[in-house]
Please model this.
Amino acid sequence: MLEPKEENGGRSEVASYVATLSNDLANMARRTGLDTLGYLLEMVRLEAESLTRRNGPNGRHSP
Model:
């Protein structure tokens, strides 16, 4: 897997963006009756938020 380059945003920024997008997509899926897809997208959101917290503001692993 490719690592994001600093000029394209750090790991925390990418994870935060993925969390936001997956939340929006999960809501759309659920509104249209795609419950399993909504659930999976919610799991993506939770993982992305976890990575955002772990990587800290500078995009590196925080202790």
